[in-house]
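#structure-requests
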Amino acid sequence: MRTAAGLAPTLGFALLAAACQRAPAPPPDAVAEIGGTAVRYAEFERYVKRDVGDTGSVLGSDVLSELFDQFMDERLLTRLAVDRGLISGSAAGAAPRRAIDALLEAGLPREPGDAEVARYYQAHRAELERPERVRLRQILTQERQAAEEARREVAAGTPFEEVARKLSKGPNAAAGGDQGELARSDLPPSFADLIFSLKPGEVSPVVPAEYGFHVFQVVDHLPAEVVPLESARPEIAAKLRQEGADRLLRSLVQEARSHYNVKVYERNLPFGYQGSYHAKKTR
């Protein structure tokens, strides 16, 4: 039987061997590791500068943590795209958007089908209701005299849009003062009743405001309605494509996070990291 003294050298060798097998400490500028490849802080700095510019140096830890998660997700998705042969490894470093587009193109159908669009339409009819609206033009001047002159020219037969291009200082003057389709809720309460009382083609009196003087013309009245399915189809299809892309991206990120050995070296980050990779951090 070995004595305690005899066990001491053996135990010492065992502890030394275990120490030798420990993973080496990461480089001081490495903030993460993906599948054995170090991610340097300088790479994250370039990402922040690209997304938010030079203001990155004054961002709080919560915002920087969110940006760091987005940065890591992009790196993982790029790695996934390379491993699936969707982009070349040589292009990976400079093309996260290309990698994401390639993953989406490979995973999404080209267009939502008619049945899917119809189901969305039925489920979201309330969102497709349009209140009563007017198509409106306006002339906006800084002085009442100019507004009165504009109104006299229109009353004498000069087209409203021509006068607007010449005299208006307001939005879309170059487009004849066109303001598009507006509901009551889109207008200042002090203007809404007057504007909705005008008949198509009718011109308002000069309307004073804090910032100038208006002359309005109602081009047409549009009744409240639910947008027909065919008219709503392009908008619905775009929403369905975006929703599908968002779902697929979330799924791909979770798949990549699970597949690759991801480590975050929190002590090398110059802010208090609070992000979703927190559970996988290493000390």
